[in-house]
Amino acid sequence: MKKLILLLFLTTAILPANAAQFGVGVCGGMNIPVIQQDQGSGTIFGLKAKLNLLPGVSVEPNLNFAKFGDAKKDYGTRKGSKITSYGVDAILGAGLPGVGVKMYGLVGGGIYSTKRDNDPDATKMGWAAGLGLEVGFTSKIAVDIRGKLNVIGSEGGGTKKSAALTGGVNYYFGF
Amino acid sequence: MIKKITWFALLSALLAILIVGGCNLVTGTFVVDINVKNTDIVPHGTFEYFAVDLTTNDTWKNHKDNIKNVDNIGFQLWVTNNGSAVTWEFYADTTSVSHADTSSIRANGKQILAGLSLAPGKTYIDWPTSLIYLNSKELPTFKQWVEAGKFDIYALTDKLPYNVTIDSAHVIITVTAGP
C-alpha cells in the first residue's frame, strides 16, 4: 500500500511536466463518525490537486483537516479527535473537466494522524471510497459534491470510520 | 474494447480493495458505562475497593466476544477527602484475587489511574479529567478482564491513614470491537 501511494505521488509529480493540464480544488463539509460512540459529528476542510491519468480516470493528491464534535454522554462530555490526513484518491468516471454533470466513484489511501486530549497521538494508514458529482459550469470551474468513507486502522486490528460529506470548487488549468 | 477492459480492470480493483478492507469494515468503537452503587463501594481500612460487573450491560453483551482493543478506561467520581491533601491512585485486579493490604495491591494489581491530587473536602472528577491520569500502559492487560466481564478496582492514597470516601462512581470503558 505504501508503494502504491508512493507510485501515485510520483505519477502526480511527473504528470504536470508533460501535460500542463491539471486542476486544484478546495472543499469543506461535515465529518460524521461511523460506529464511533465516543465521537460527535464535526467538520472537515480539504485541499486537492487533480490530474488526468487515463480517459475517465484521474488522480487526486489531497490534504485534509478534520475534527469530530464532542461526545456528549450522560456521564460527561469529551472533546472529539482532530485528524490530519494526506493521501491519493483515484477518481473513476470523471476525467477531463467540461460543462455538464458527471458522476464518479473514488477509491484511495492515505496517512491519518489523530490527536485527542488525553489519548496518545496515533498515525495510521487508511483507505477511502466514495461517490461524487461534479458539475462543470465552464471548462475551468466546477462544483464538486461528494460523500467519502474514511477507514483508518487502529490498535488491535480494528478500524475507525467516518463519513465526510463535502462540497467544493475545482479550478482547472490548461483547458 | 480497450476502454471497456480498462473500466472492468478498475472496477475489479475497486471491488478487491473493498473486499479486503471489508474484513474489518464493521468494527466500531463502543462505550460501556457502569454505574457503581454507593453500597457496592467497600471500605477496607487502608484502601477502598469496588467490583465492576459488566455482564448486565447490553453494549458489553453485544460485543464481549469480539473486543479487539480497550481504548481507554475513564471514571466519573464523587469523592470526599476527610483528611489532608493526598495523591490518589487506582489499581485493578481480577475478582478471583483478594488483597489484604496496599502492598499486595501495588505488587500484584495493575495501576490504571495515577497522580490524582485530592484536596480536603469534596471533589468531583468528570470523565475527561479522569483520562488525564490514566495509565494506558496497562490497557492490554485490562482487555482480558473486560472480556471476562468482572474485575475489582482498588483506590489507594500515597500516604496513610486512608481518609477518602468514594461517594459515587461511574466506570466508562471505551473499546474497539468487531469481527
Of all chain pairs, the largest interface belongs to: A-B, 37 and 37 residues
SSE succession of chain A: HEEEEEEEEEE
Query: What's the quaternary structure here?
Result: heterodimer
Q: How many strands, which pairing sense, and closed or not: the largest β-sheet of chain B?
A: 5 strands, antiparallel
State the helicity of chain B in percent bands: 25-40%
Beta-strand portion of chain B reads: 35-45%
Helix content of chain A: under 10%
- Mean pLDDT over the residues of chain A: 88
* Shape, per Cα inertia axes of chain A: elongated
Query: What is the level-2 CATH architecture name of chain A?
Result: Beta Barrel
Low-confidence stretches of chain A: none
Beta strand % of chain A:
over 45%
Number of domains of chain B: 1
- Strand order, sheet with most strands of chain A: 1-2-3-6-7-8-9-10
Describe, in plain words, how this protein is organized in 3D.
The complex is a heterodimer of chains A (175) and B (179). Chain A is mainly beta. Chain A has a single domain, classed as Porin (Beta Barrel), CATH 2.40.160.20. Chain A has 1 helix and 10 strands. In chain A, strands 1-2-3-6-7-8-9-10 form an 8-stranded antiparallel β-barrel. Chain A has a two-stranded antiparallel sheet with strand order 4-5. In chain A, strand 8 and strand 9 form a beta hairpin. Chain A is elongated. Chain A starts with a helix and ends with a strand. The model of chain A has no long low-confidence stretch (mean pLDDT 88). Chain B is of the alpha+beta class and 179 residues long. Chain B has a single domain, classed as Jelly Rolls, CATH 2.60.120. In chain B, a hairpin with a 4-residue loop joins strand 2 and strand 3. The radius of gyration of chain B is 22 Å and the shape is globular. The mean pLDDT of chain B is 86. The interface between A and B is large, with 37 and 37 residues.
